[in-house]
Amino acid sequence: MKNSIINNFLEDINNNSDLKDQLRSACSKKKNLYDFLSEDVILFAEKLGYHITLKDCLDYQSDGNLGFVKLRKEIFFSPIKRLITVISSICFFMISISVGLSFLMNQNKHEENIQNLDTKEKSNEQDSENGDNAEEEPHEVVGALDFSSKKCGYDAREIAEKLKKYDYSPQIRVPGDSPKKVVFLTFDDGPSLTVTPKILEILGKNDVKATFFVVGEEIQQKGRDAILKRTLNEGHALANHTFAHDFSFLYPKGWLNINNFLLDLEKVDIALKNTLGDKFQSRVVRAPGGTDSWKGMDALEEYISKQNMALIDWNVVAGDAETSRKSASQLLSRVISSSRDMSLVVLLLHDSTYKTETVKALQEIIDYYRKENFEFGILV
After folding, report:
1. Same domain, yes or no, for 218 and 358?
2. pLDDT confidence band for 77 (50 / 70 / 90)
3. Could you tell me if 166 and 58 lie in one domain?
4. For labeling, which of 38, 121, 320, 343 is most exposed (least CB within 10 Å)?
5. Cβ atoms within 10 Å, residue 304
6. What is the rounded CA–CA span in Å between residue 200 and residue 191?
7. For residues 368 and 183, is the Cβ–Cβ distance under 8 A?
């Protein structure tokens, strides 16, 4: 039903040049697809009597429809097609002249270049055999670097399902392995300049990998890009904890606003790619406050599932984010008492600016889980 309404709306726009011009004027500065849908197209649809939401639009695209993509392309690029054609013709003429001159100037060097190429190919073959100066093509990074995912990565979707079912039994990471006790150290709300580097130092000293649920606004602060890159390069996983961690924006009056939440997730994705490169993506999400704290979360869970992502909470808390400040010994005691009789632990910790007691407690937390024969995993 919603798809037919959207199709009618798009048909009205595409068949009416005046409406298309009005929409182009309204969204001239909105290059991001989510901004385009939520702040322009949806409001414009309301004016024409079509009542659709961002979720309707995203579902429409998830079903394989390209109407919004084509409309956005038409809005932003049609007005300059003629200019591009003229410029292209001029460029082609200039390039033709340049190529001709270049050909004449380099004709005498042709044989020499062939000989050099022969020598270079032999040299490259030798380098390849020796492994010297070999450069790998950049490839997609999902949550963590390959070496870490292969060593201690677990499918976050499977772990999230086990938490929902209160199934805290031993885990099998790779088919054929024996079941093992696993703990996932997860740190929310960073990266910070003060706490995150100290946590990374302790984790590195113990050869332990963790999962960091980062906040977009923190990523964009001065000096955080280096910390984010260090976190990834040292083998830890990065996951999405929304852009602003703003309860009133994400859950007005205690109810999920799916449009706002998805916009926040998109902003974090962009911030991560801007820092780590276009090949990076994370499919793991943690809702600020946890999924059980808010109403209407089914819409988010449905979207996450359709996108083949994971929405994950925790089953053990240290208490480092509670109103009353806890000492390092209190945090450790809480972790120990809450982890008894469990073989699967997703531990909630924080690495924001003032979590100095978390830093003090971390070594003993690691020692406790090692003593109890837990392995340390990351969520990817």
Report:
1. yes
2. very low
3. no
4. 121
5. 21
6. 11
7. no
User: In angstroms, rounded to a whole number, what is the distance separating the alpha carbons of residues 61 and 296?
Assistant: 22
Confidence category of residue 72, pLDDT binned at 50, 70, 90: low
Which tens digits make up the pLDDT trace of 112-133? 544 544 444 444 445 444 444 4
Claim to verify: residue 237 and residue 99 sit in the same structural domain? no
For residue 8, the number of C-alpha atoms closer than 13 Å in the C-beta half-sphere is 11
How many domains in the chain? 2
Q: Determine which of 112-116, 253-257, 302-306, 314-318 has the lowest per-residue pLDDT on average.
A: 112-116
Please state whether 133 falls in left (phi above 0), alpha (psi between -120 and 50) or beta: left
> Which domain-ending residue is among 133, 163, 190?
133
Residue 25's domain spans which residues?
1-133
- Counted residue by residue, the chain has a size of 380
Q: Degrees (nearest 5) of the Cα angle 273, 279, 280? A: 55
Confidence band, pLDDT 50/70/90 cuts, at residue 7: confident
Structure tokens at 254: 């205690």
Asked whether residue 265 falls in the same domain as residue 340, the answer is yes
Boundary-marking domain end, from 108, 133, 158: 133
Which tens digit of pLDDT belongs to each residue from 282-302?
999 999 999 999 999 999 999
What is the C-alpha to C-alpha distance for residues 344 and 379, in angstroms, rounded to an integer? 13
What DSSP line would sit under 61-126, residue for residue?
HHTT--HHHHHHHHHHHGGGHHHHHHHHHHHHHHHHHHHHHHHHHHGGGHHHHHHHHHHHHHHHHH
Query: Is residue 368 classed exposed, middle or buried when 0-12, 13-18 and 19+ CB atoms within 10 A define those classes?
Result: middle
Same domain, 160 and 302: yes
**Domain of 363: which CATH number?**
3.20.20.370
- Residue 39's SS3 state is helix
- Provide the 10 A C-beta neighbour count for residue 284: 28
Alpha-carbon Rg for the chain, nearest whole angstrom, is 26
* Distance (Å, whole) CA 225 – CA 116: 42
Backbone CA torsion sign across 316, 322, 324, 325: positive
